[in-house]
Write a structure and sequence with these properties.
The complex is a heterodimer. Helix content of chain A is 37%, strand content 12%. In chain A, the strands form 2 sheets. A 5-stranded parallel sheet of chain A has the order 1-2-3-7-6, with helices on both faces. A two-stranded antiparallel sheet of chain A has the order 4-5. Chain B is α/β, with parallel strands linked by helices. Chain B is elongated. Chain B has a 7-stranded mixed sheet with strand order 2-1-3-4-6-5-10. In chain B, strands 7-9-8-11-12 form a 5-stranded mixed sheet, with helices on both faces. The chains are: A alpha/beta, B alpha/beta.
Chain lengths: 285, 322
Amino acid sequence: MTQTEVEELESAALRVRQHIIGMSTDGGCFIGASLSCADLLVYLYWKFLNVSPLTVHAEDRDLLLLSKGHDVPALYGVLAERGFISKERLKHHLSVDDDLYWHPNRNVSGVEFHSGSLGHLLSVGMGMALDARMKGLSTRVVVIMGDGELNEGSVWEACLVASALSLDNLIAVVDRNHFQANVRTEELVPLEPLAEKFRAFGWNATHVNGHEMTSLDECFGSLHLNTGSPTVVIADTRRGKGLPSIEEQADRWFCNFSAHEAEALLEELNGNARATITSEKLIVR
Amino acid sequence: MNAYETLLLDTASRDERLVVITAENRGHMRTVPPMLGDRFIDVGIAEQTMIGMAAGMAVRGRVVVTHALAAFLTMRAFEFIRDDVAITNAPVIMVGMVPGILSDGNGPTHQAIEDVSIMRGLPNMGVFCPCDEREFVDGMRALLESRRPWYVRYLNTPELPIDREPFVPGRAVTVRGASLHHPNVTILTYGFLTRQCIDAADQLRRHDLNVRVVNMRTLRPVDIEVICDAARRSELLVTVEDHFLTGGLASIVAETLIAHQIMLPVMNIGFTSWFKPGRLNEVLEHEGLSSTALARRIHERFTDIVHRAAQPPSPHQEISHV
């Protein structure tokens, strides 16, 4: 990737983060998880996935599934920046007159499947990957999972079966931000050594820095697909990435900021003054 | 420290059998983990494992209170609840967070609006749906002593201005219009929407409609006497719930009226599909569950009934559902 391309992606990621902050007020959103996967989604939609607003219904398009779901503001931002939906529509977040709420659903163009309950979309993605193989399509299926989501037993059932079915057009991506709702993953149900767990289940496993476009490009550009095994990319990320005032704080998961705070966070995102956040810390979900 | 944390800690200090488990839902009980030590367990996002563990502890003599989002608790772990808790009649109390309409902007995956239906369908299982935080805590105090399985819709809303009666499973409480011997309308409800129903009753009073509001409190066991009494005294019986009509209070009332061969106009207010996600107040309005919307809907139906009653019956008139 050229430096110009890297700068283009970083600029897109900045705009996506601005959209996310816009959705973190007047009802709020799961901002921390959205910020951790923003760079990842920008890279995938700009450089990796064979899908665009023109091919959003093409049978052989690549399919991305957001299994953790509550990071959907990042996807809404990406879909708006890529032209799947209008940017104006993001202002309708949480309106009963639109379909943009805290978890994804298929009424939004570009969203392939709804989610919200964790540990579902790896198996749904396996069905799509299997269908593509049966039809002889070049479709690749990418399933984004949270690391907390890996607590759910259904994820590991699916891992066993994906390996048994040799689903080598399936790519799971773990947004490894080291937090689940209220606590650090390693303090609750430790996941490490995570790559070794997937390998023991018969998967190809690799690590990437989930915030560096060049690292993402090196990783996804050199994946060994179609070798008989499913692939997992463990993307090391930071929850709340881009906003130091909330980054990696256990109680900044779901946030509903005041309009003034959202303004301050936009300033912080742009590298100006650090925001002072006093709104309620934790809303249980 | 909130009232629920106080209850859990007080109970734990008196009863060493008590164990509290969450599936990563400790937000409403921040002070409990450090105070309870090894009698607080957070299993992570693993609802099935939580219920299996709770059953294992319960049959070994413990009282276990489990917590997860109501949708995932009742549906993801359903078979574990059925097989390990209900069949064994184990004293496991399952507290479901953000039940019913409280999932506001989360979307259908998080909407527990069939929870009452599926839980009351299980032998041995009790179902408790409090109307505010005070009723939740009062009820939980009794359930912790009950030695049987319970599903509870969690609610921490401010105390409603209503008369209180001691919590007894299977006993409803009249929260508006208790002195009315023959109300025009009786509203049967439970949980979060009790507030909307009380406000709707007050609004209908201004339209010269006498309305009684009954808070069912437990949907299993259910207060059959209260339902039958309301049906015999009222011109219109209304059920209001943030739940699918199928299997919820609407079904409970239908089953009860059939069993006791009582006929009267009945109006069922609830969901027939998943509700539109959004900000809570907007959702209430959109779904016709705000107090104003409830009052309007009930007033329209009552007017319609009176109008029909005034019409001379046609010889070929078919029996119609009212």
